[in-house]
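hi!! sorry for the late reply, been swamped w classes. u asked for the two structures so here they r. pasted raw, havent cleaned anything up. first the sequence of the first protein and right below it the tokens
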Amino acid sequence: MVYLIHSFRMYVKTTVIRWRMTTDRTTTGYSGRQGPLSSAELLWGARDRPSRGPKPKLTIDRIARAAIAIADAEGLDALSMQRVAKELGFSTMSLYRYVPSKEQLLDVMIDIGCGPAPIPAGPCTDWRAEIEDWVRRIWTMYQEHPWVLRVQINGPPVGPNQLSWFEAALRPLSQAGLGGADLVAVATFLLGTTRELARISLDMAQAREQAGVSVTQAGSGFAAVLRDHVDATRYPTLAGLVADELFEPVEAQGDGIDFDLHFGIQRLLDGIESYVDTGRANR
């Protein structure tokens, strides 16, 4: 937990040092992209348009939203600076005046795509309900913009919208009684768990589409493999679950991953309550 905070501090420190040592602000930094701090400038509007000349016809927001529309409809493989420029009716070089690279475009797309977190007004009165709502909204965002799951994570979030989602998780967890490194670790774990299960769900959906099978058909195939090959000697616990028909598909439950996520989050929240209560009892 302490390592997570330490790594974040080192990331910021290293990024700032490298940026200050660079005259053109295009040095490749920690993330391997064209300057993480430059991405932060783009995300926070510091470079929304060229400083000289007439009022521009393009904005970073407009460029990013055009790119998001392409990625939503056709996936990241279809995305390029040339394609975005064509959709907007501008030359490719025109886009580079606003967004120096495709990698930075992806940074901006993710932040704009996820939008600001809907943080409730007033104090937190039900921390569990807020966390459950937060997870549902994150899950929905991944379903609406599945390409986000294909972008490699190269560092902590630096955009205003992404940080608002981080704040939206920290707020109720803090109300639950967590603080310091514990607070950051649990919030990071929640996001990582939701993201990974969403990625698995996406991968499975794509595999079914390529195979031309439904959720029920895929589930039936998996259950058949288990029935044919799982024996009680080698897999005693698994064999018991197979005998109980736990892996037989239930069409109403889809691929079951959203249920797994909900159940897992509930148990995590139970654990947080127990952890906080134990800590208070030992004070």
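now the second protein. again sequence first, tokens right under
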Amino acid sequence: MYKKLGIFLLGIVVLGGGGIYYAQTSQDVLPTNTALMLDSVNPTVFETKNAEQQRIIIDVRTPEEFASGHLEGARNIDFYSAEFADIISALDTSTAYSVYCRSGNRSGQTLELMKSLGFTDVLDLEGGIMAWVQSGKPL
């Protein structure tokens, strides 16, 4: 009986270890320079990616919010504008974009819209400009 139990436990260890090995090696097979980057990121990553790469920064807040302070070089496209979806649809889907709003809600919805339209490189500032300021980053 103990022999059968030992064989059973050994089988579980071998199968489990094989699964771990497969998971580790399959990650190595994924391309490291994938073109798809569609994600919400923290202020530090957002800042770094914008500095490393020529990205178009889109502020989806209202014009009044934009006038009160915005990230350097940002372009304002009002989320609440009747033309918002048309303006976003007209953008080049292969260009790299970074989007933000006040708290991350509108920019998160913008990220989803851009995904559905086939954009391949869009970053959303997680927590919006509030998180940016709270992390000590300049406007």
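hope this helps!! also noticed smth abt the second:
The two ends are 71 Å apart (CA to CA).
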